[in-house]
Write a structure and sequence with these properties.
With about 375 residues, the protein is mostly beta strands. The protein has two domains: about 5-250; about 260-380, Jelly Rolls, CATH 2.60.120. It has two helices and 26 strands. It has helices at about 35-45, 240-255, and strands at about 10-15, 50-55, 55-60, 65-70, 80, 90-95, 95-100, 105-110, 115-125, 130-145, 145, 150-155, 160-165, 170-195, 195-210, 215-230, 235-240, 260-270, 275-285, 285-295, 305-310, 320, 335-345, 350-355, 365-375, 380. The strands form three sheets. The protein has a 17-stranded parallel β-sheet that branches. Strands 22-21-24-19-26 form a five-stranded antiparallel β-sheet, with no helix packed on it. α1 links the parallel β1 (about 10-15) and β2. It is rod-shaped. The model has no long low-confidence stretch (mean pLDDT about 95).
Length: about 375
């Protein structure tokens, strides 16, 4: 084997079994290097950019435009510490990444574990993230990433763009002071903490979203399938989530909404003495009574009853069924006495049934039904 036949055109680094130097066959799979400076030298000499990494590696110099191939899914000991070094335009595959990302441009992380990475800039695709994570003021995109070992904390700052696409698991976005953040297609738990500025757009697939009381600025827009708990202070929260919209539809369908037809029903026993007895009371808001029906039971009322009438208790009563219509001669077995019209029923106004002559036979129970509409949402007859 020669350098021209090097497998996959890579220089091989192994902190466990590697050796120092740059002479052949150091840097091959059989004799890997354990000195990153030697690896850089060998890459430059042979015009290579790919480095196979096994074991622990701490970057000690700028390493722009390299491709690092790790084995983090084979052993958790393969830790690559960025160490604040410039890795602009470099790519990391299957690496366990730790430390601060240096440089001013973007790096790419594919199928990596991000363990306590700070000053992140670039693209992470199919990565598992372990808290904490801090992004830079530039552009950071996370595509189909997940959290591991519970909820992760992401320090946002004021990025040009921070984007999580199809994120699953639990995440706390904290300390956004400006810029734009997008969470698209999240499944799991999202908490927004200490937001003071910027814009956060959330598109949920199936998420529980909590906005904390220490969020005092900025704007949050929420869309999709989410259960939202908004405890925010001065942060503007526009909740367009499906659950909130369904709640609004249910509220609009609520019969207590202004102008919608409502029904109130009760019963009254005519086996009572001469006097007036409450059927309904206007409650919470004004309503308009449109119709009323009283259904008699089987059999004649008998007793000393001579008539019934139904009216309001206003100073000038609103007559609904007068004593003529309610005369005992009209109180036939299973008869219906009905009324239609309009009466303005204020809060506290009572609709009452009056008995004349005396009580009927025992247990002569009638069903009374009223149809009405609220003038102001919330009005009802109780």
């Amino acid at each position: 084997m020669s350098w021209q036949e090097l497998p996959l055109d890579r220089i091989y680094f192994n902190s466990f079994t590697g050796v120092q130097g740059t002479a052949w066959p150091i840097g091959t799979p059989q004799v890997p290097s354990d000195v990153i400076a030697d690896v850089i030298t060998m890459c430059a000499a042979r015009n290579l950019i790919d480095i196979d990494v096994h074991g622990t590696l701490q970057l000690l110099a700028s390493m722009e435009h390299y491709c690092f191939h790790g084995h983090c899914h084979e052993t958790i000991a393969d830790v690559l510490d960025l160490n604040g070094q410039d890795v602009d335009d470099s790519r990391f595959d299957n690496c366990l990444i730790n430390g601060a990302q240096g440089g001013a441009n973007l790096a790419t992380y594919m199928d990596c574990i991000l363990l306590g990475v700070t000053n992140f800039r670039g693209m992470a695709k199919r990565c598992a993230i372990y808290s904490p994570l801090a992004v830079s003021v530039g552009v950071s995109d996370f595509d189909h990433c997940t959290s591991i070992h519970g909820v992760i904390t992401v320090t946002v700052g004021a990025p040009t763009r921070l984007s999580f696409k199809k994120f699953s698991g639990g995440m706390i976005l904290t300390l956004q002071t400006g810029g734009t953040a997008l969470v698209r297609g999240i499944s799991g738990y999202l908490e927004v903490d200490e937001m003071t500025g910027g814009t956060l757009d959330i598109y949920a697939d199936a998420a529980e979203i909590q906005i904390n009381a220490d969020c005092t600025g900025g704007t949050i827009n929420i869309y999709g399938n989410a259960r939202v708990t908004d405890n925010s202070g001065a942060t503007i929260v526009n909740d367009y989530s499906q659950e909130t919209q369904l709640d609004a539809i249910e509220s609009a369908a609520d019969p207590l909404v202004m102008g919608r037809a409502q029904i109130a029903a009760t019963t009254i026993d005519l086996d009572q003495g001469i006097g007036s007895y409450d059927l309904f009371t206007g409650t919470d808001q004004v309503v308009i009574l449109e119709s009323l029906n009283i259904k008699l039971p089987t059999g004649a009322p008998g007793g000393t009853l001579t008539s019934i009438s139904i009216q309001t208790d206003d100073a000038t009563p609103g007559v609904i069924i007068d004593a003529v219509a309610g005369a005992v001669a009209n109180l036939l077995t299973e008869a219906d006495l009905g009324w239609t019209g309009t009466l303005y029923i204020t809060v506290g106004t009572k609709i009452q049934l009056s008995i004349a002559g005396g009580p009927s036979v025992a247990d002569y129970i009638c069903n009374v039904t009223a149809k009405y509409r609220a003038v102001v949402s919330g009005g009802s007859l109780a």
